[in-house]
């Protein structure tokens, strides 16, 4: 039996303390250096566990301030925002990522103007893969008014979704899940036939009413499915 990765044990320990009420809403999570000493691991391992807690909506991460237990939202059930890099690695596969295009531009149209909130947008096109097989084609817009540090990030190395989950916490999110046929460009990048069915996941996030990002991810229909498990307290989004 494969031992559970250490970051998952840290995640489970903190999750248990949060859900039991031992760590109440607004309470500070131990600092990363404290957790590395407690578990005898690297800071990257701790950061991965905290990122997953943030992705599940249990923790908010504030740059230079630390991590805190999220405030509960009454009557809220939600799909957590997945980190594709973490998901692929958790399945024991080799994660691959390629930035295809990046540009700063003005908003084009009403929805983009609303997202931009008076500032420019950072437009990114990325390709994610698992074991060298294309998994998702991503088209993303980041509002620089909400996330100004994004312009300084090297997205050649860091996937934008991973960076946003780590450094730009969200308070509201909207998911739209559908299907579409792959056009010629999408088919070439995902290594599928033109017209093949793709799962389309469109997502928008806000922080205290201000738009942060809008993204559309296209997955080959035979390589990805999305399962949402809901409970009265919180929901987890599991992808495989």
UniProtKB/TrEMBL annotation:
> What GO MF terms are annotated?
DNA binding; DNA-binding transcription factor activity
Q: Which domain of life is it from?
A: Bacteria
Under InterPro entries, the record lists:
Bact_HTH_transcr_reg, Chorismate_lyase_/UTRA_dom_sf, Tscrpt_reg_HTH_GntR, UTRA, WH-like_DNA-bd_sf, WH_DNA-bd_sf
Keyword line: DNA-binding, Transcription, Transcription regulation
Q: Name one Pfam family in it.
A: UTRA
HTH gntR-type domain: residues covered: 4-72
Under which name does UniProt file this protein? HTH-type transcriptional repressor YvoA
Gene name linked to the record: yvoA
